[in-house]
Write a structure and sequence with these properties.
This protein is mainly beta. The protein contains two helices and eight strands; from the N terminus they run H-E-E-E-E-E-H-E-E-E. The longest helix is centred in the N-terminal third of the chain and has 11 residues. It is flat and about 75 Å long. The mean pLDDT is 90.
Amino acid sequence: MALALAGCDFLAGAPEIERLEPAPEVFVVDQRGPVRSVRSVQRDRLPGGVVITAVGVPAAQGYWDAELVPLTEDPVNGELAFEFRVAPPALPTPPGTERSREVVVARFLSDIQLQGVSRVVVTAESNSRSVRP
């Protein structure tokens, strides 16, 4: 009995257990828009997959944070589609020459991701280009 009471005394001094609640979901909105046009798309074979490289031309100089963003998780009718997105400059910039505005982006696609894919399509605001994997 003495041991049981001693055990109760020990538990009485224990700190309260804090319950962990799930964190609220946070949704991040992509503020980037599509590049004005895609100049070229190419693929380079590597062990285990391919690297898709695209050259885009935005409206002016200074666009940054470029990425090929998947439009779907899985291929649709054998096509794997990406949108070429870029973030605009913080301040207005001159348009400059088309060559000076070029933005290059690349994405690795594994052989597993390419199963059932016959074309990789990169879209922009005004056009799209494709390449066979």
